[in-house]
Amino acid sequence: MSAVFSIALEHLWLSVAGVFLACVIGVPMGIVILKIRVLAGPVMGVIDILQTIPSLAMLALVMFFFGLGNMSLITALFIYALLPVVRNTFIGLTGVKSELLEAGKGMGMTGWQLLWQVQLPIALPVILAGFRVAVVTSIGIATIGTLIGAGGLGEPIWRGIQLVNTPMILSGAVPAALLAIIADYSLGLLEKSVVSRGLQVKNTN
Amino acid sequence: MTKTRGFLVLTVLILVLALIFTGCSGGDKAQQENGKVVIGSKNFNENIILSEILAQLIEAKTELTVERKQNLGGTMVCFNALKSGDLDMYPDYTGTGLVAVLKQPVNTDPQEVYDYVQKEYNDQFKIKWMLPFGFNNTYAVAVRQETAEEHTLKKVSDLTPLTGQMVFGAEQEFFNRPDGYDGMTKIYNMKFKEHKAFETALKYQAVAQKKIDVTDAFSTDGELITYNLKILEDDKKFFPPYFCTTIVRMDTLKKYPELEKTLNLLADQISNDEMQQLNYQVAEKKRDTKDVAGEFLKKKGLI
Amino acid sequence: MSPLLDLLLLRWPELLTATWQHIYISLGSVALGALLAVPLGIWLSTREHISRMVLGVVGTIQTIPSLAFFGFVLPILGIGILPAMSVLFLYSLLPILRNTYTGIREVDPALIEAGRGMGMNSRQLLFMVKLPVALPVIMAGIRISTVYIISWTTIAALIGAGGLGDLIWGGMNVYDIWLIVAGTIPAALLALLAGFTLGRLEKTVTPRGLKAGYTSGEGEFNI
Question: Residue ranges per domain, chain A?
Fold first, then answer.
């Protein structure tokens, strides 16, 4: 049991590492395309197209550049996580009501103050929704990382498929499914908890 | 300030992630660290078992720690990873080195093949072949026992006139190497109705479920017993010998001089029957690879 | 570029077969998924209590990692197209079901009242008001499903289903990047083409009266 637990933990950090990197790059990227609006179309277009590359192919292609192992998997997950992160940052920030921006301006806020103190806090739930989608997706894709020599729960699943060994398949498949379900649920809760208090009241009915 | 709570959450989240990230990230280039070797394997049973045997042997006989990267892909995946230093060693077969990697014509003399790949691998890739384990896992052409009886098949050339009604299936690698599908169908003048690629382990199920009629088998596969398959004699001597042993990066051997002696403890220790038994234990008895490898080493008095 | 060209010249029949298999498996699965999910979504739209449960179950299915799911069905259904399509069919359900359900639930009550006022019975209301109004949202669900099922079909090659995943997986096994590229490009193009065509279809099925307020029902599945 403890072996399964440590593999599940490894699986989790592999999945989250890619998404984490995507947030470090993607959130600023979302802000940049908000500020320099002409970039929004091309940037989103490129990320959209990257998304249509099937995960198996993405792993295969990444393998050629980064070799076998965890780094390649994390790179692939990073690329996939960019879309939900960048798109939700951008949508979240543009979705802030203009009255609120006007109010901020009226209080004498600068552009950056507006971004930090008004836009980002209001957009945070939407950004976190992107993060949630990215994490759940990553947990799924990380299972096929075993095909390029990465660790995680894909290993017992794949070995079990090869050996037609159902218990072995389940020993990887069940924790992987649980991990995805738990991540989805708990990040959903987090998403709700970060809605600004002022906005929460309005949303209760 | 209403913004604080949201950012507090975000900061905590990022900190946690950063902790996980820095805490768990081990370097991928293993040989840069001290006292660690990375052992790979291809994506089929026998190779995985052998790499596990190597791993346990090294763990028992040396101070080195072992990282396992098993079940990777076909020959070229492992070979390229070995060249680039992602792997330090993995088990390979002389015939595979000769035909698939070095692209040389088939030669049926085992010693000549071994000497040739040894020399070329040393010179071209700085990779060394250890002494052979003993068994020869050659490719074989296999059919269901009932198919063999129905058409009285004994040799591969008996199959030739029937290929028009038959479907051939094999793992992807077989369709992409000179000592594989193209070469075989040419030498034996075969024209299969259809050919399909399956994952190595699934091809036997495909034969059993009659999705394919003919497959390439490895002569030491345990599945040959379970699925009651008949091996046809390679009467035109198309397949070269495939003696198996560990191939290792020379810089790894230089760095850890104790390795070579340790690995050569396995010289001539595994016969064809023994290898087939090991494969059978894992593939059909559903036993844990680690246990099977450990038992074997104990039985041989190696650990 | 020339190694890719050589490869295409040599193996184009294989590529064509694989592309055809890929279309067949992915579109077939989504079609079956729509066949179940659309009526089910309509049925659920008037039963709030059960709907929460059903959507929960289907949503959970969606989070199961694909390799794990293929692993589940392999011992039961064996290898090949049947287990692959069964899994992909289940994966295709969620967006279609959810969009059908919400699409119908969110039809403007004023429109329904107007229909009632004209003396429509519930069947007429469904076919002449609710469905036409909800159709763009339902189509968006089908589009989202199709795009990611096309991507996931490549993984089905691992359990012997064929399709473009065969080339990619083959390329991975023999370390041939061009073989991988030859499988990837048609798969990505198929996904883009399906997304584009179905997106256009969404717009054409939007009732004329509603076109001004048209918004695309973007889903959250992006693989």
Answer: 2-196
Q: Does domain A2-196 have CATH number 1.10.3720.10?
A: yes
Tens digits of residue pLDDT in A2-60: 788 899 999 999 999 999 999 999 999 999 999 899 999 999 999 988 988 999 999 99
| Residue-number span of the structural domain to which B176 is assigned | 139-232
| Contact assignment for A149 to B28 by CB distance below 8 Å | no
Element (H, E) at B246: strand B244-249
Hey, how many other C-beta atoms are within 10 angstroms of the C-beta on A187?
Answer: 19
- Tokens describing residue B83: 């060249």
Q: How distant is the Cα of A162 from the closest Cα of chain B, in angstroms? A: 5
- B16 domain residue, yes or no: no
Give the three-state DSSP class for B257.
Answer: coil
Query: How many contacts (CB atoms, under 8 Å) link B and C?
Result: 57
Please tell me if residue A63 touches chain C, with a CB cutoff of 8 Å: yes
Q: Determine the residue among B176, B182, B192 to mutate to test chain C binding: the one whose Cβ has the most chain C Cβ atoms within 10 Å.
A: B176
Put simply, the answer to whether C160 touches B76 (Cβ < 8 Å) is: no
Q: Which of B295, B214, B298 is nearest to B49 (CA)?
A: B295
Distance, first Cα to last Cα, chain B: 67
Q: What share of chain C is helix, strand, coil (3-state, %, to 5)?
A: 85, 0, 15
For residue A37, the 8-state DSSP code is G
Token pair, residue C115, equals 């229909």
ipTM of the predicted assembly exceeds 0.85: no
